[in-house]
Amino acid sequence: MLYYTHPAHDERVAAGLTPVNAFWISGSGACPTTPAGIADNVTVDDRLRTPALRGDWAAWQLAWQQLDAEVLPGWLARATAGERVQLTLCGERSFTTLAWGPRSPWQRLGNTISSLFGTQRLSELLSPL
After folding, report:
1. pLDDT for the residue 69
2. Model's pTM, two decimal places?
3. HEC-encoded secondary structure of the chain
């Protein structure tokens, strides 16, 4: 988009060639349904996405209730059984990742110390998103 600021553009003009102000890449193929680099054990549940993009907060709340009833109990059971589970919530500008699972003694000590200074509310965690 800013090709005219690229040194190759200046070289073309200096060589007396026609300036190029745009180019279009086409025919590069279909986008894969699963992006490369995503692990097999990753689940993407985007039922919060559409209501959030529409600003339909009643539907967004209903989607959270569905997740709470359908998905989160399984995650809780896995975490309780000692498996590490991780939830990443994404927004337009940022993301936050919440993880549960086995912790080392140092992590437990760190959590104990940080809890002395107060806990963070969920609304505070989600506000940057």
Report:
1. 94
2. 0.50
3. CCHHHCHHHHHHHHCCCCCCCCCCCCCCCCCCCCCCCCCCCCCCCCCCHHHHHHCCHHHHHHHHHHHHHHCHHHHHHHHHCCCCEEEEEECCCCEEEEEECCCCHHHHHHHHHHHHCCCCCHHHHHCCC
